[in-house]
Design goal:
binds adenosine-5'-triphosphate; binds magnesium ion; 2 domains; globular; Rossmann fold; alpha/beta; 10 strands
């Protein structure tokens, strides 16, 4: 086996020379250009960068919902060629089925797994408790607030037990307390089960709290400008925010993201 192949097999995710060009009303937009990234199994990666730098584009490509124009994308050593239950996706905008109740939304993917009904009910109840919506199991999405809908989307992704979680600003629309709780739940889930997380956020502090490595992207065309190792041990809690190293990393990453933002406005 060639060295490159051996390396690829160790990675959960491999992105090599990924380029994405959109052709739309505004002409051609190069959303990504030359993105290379290796993510190890069980790694927690956060991605930050200015608006429009291609974060969601990258996530959609990893999810198999969109295709790169050039380059290679591997998950578990296999080229991504469409969506898979092994990859759980939480979108920037909650994407629920409006005609299904909370229970039915969370259970949706589990039915495709041909699971016995009792097992499905148990999983739905476990994860609806995690997002504190057990009273709303029979409600429809239109009866829920934006934050509640996003919590249903989280429960739906977690219930599928995917080995790779692809999350696009999942906590962006939530109040600070709910957000803190869901950050803690996600860290616990990640530490207990063998999951790899690819988590996009606008919030540098959230990135430092969650990630082992923070990937900073630059705009136009989107590429990786810098990767920062977060050398703060787990378990991390809200108290980790008080740690001097936390503040140092946060300020350092924030400064780079702001530079990228200014560069984009030139
Ligand atoms: N379907 C599409 N058709 C044409 N252009 C698109 C499409 N989707 C995204 N783009 C363009 O690609 C670029 C990257 O968009 P993307 O949504 O990936 O950015 P982002 O980093 O997720 O931004 P935000 O932080 O605002 O969510 C933008 O310039 C956007 O206009
Ligand atoms: Mg986005």
């Amino acid at each position: 086996m060639a060295g490159g192949e051996a390396e690829m097999m160790q990675s959960k995710v491999s992105l090599r020379g990924v380029k994405k060009i959109y052709r739309g009303a505004a002409g051609e937009v190069t959303a990504l250009n030359g993105v290379d990234l290796e993510i190890k199994n069980n790694e927690f990666i956060c991605v930050v960068g200015p608006s429009g730098c291609g974060k969601s584009t990258l996530l959609n490509i990893l999810a198999g919902l969109d295709r790169q124009t050039e380059g290679e994308v591997f998950v578990d050593g296999r080229p991504v060629d469409g969506p898979s239950g092994e990859r759980g996706v939480v979108f920037q905008q909650y994407a629920l089925f409006p005609w299904l109740t909370v229970r039915q939304n969370i259970a949706f993917g589990l039915h495709n797994k041909k699971m016995p009904k009792r097992e499905i009910d148990e999983l739905v109840e476990k994860y609806v408790r995690m997002v504190a919506l057990e009273e709303f199991l029979d409600s429809y999405p239109k009866e829920l607030s934006g934050g509640m809908k996003q919590r249903v989307a989280l429960a739906r992704a977690y219930a599928m037990n995917p080995s790779l979680l692809l999350m696009d600003e999942p906590f962006g629309a939530l109040d600070a307390q709910t957000r803190a709780q869901l950050q803690a739940d996600l860290l616990e889930l990640w530490e207990e089960e063998n999951k790899t997380c690819f988590f996009i956020t606008h919030d540098v502090e959230e990135a430092v709290l969650l990630a082992q490595r923070v990937v900073i992207m630059s705009a136009r065309p989107g590429r990786i400008s810098r990767i920062v190792d977060v050398d703060i041990p787990y378990p991390r809690t809200q108290k980790t925010r008080l740690n001097a190293r936390f503040t140092e990393l946060k300020n350092d990453i924030w400064a780079t993201v702001y530079d990228e933002y200014l560069e984009d406005r030139k």
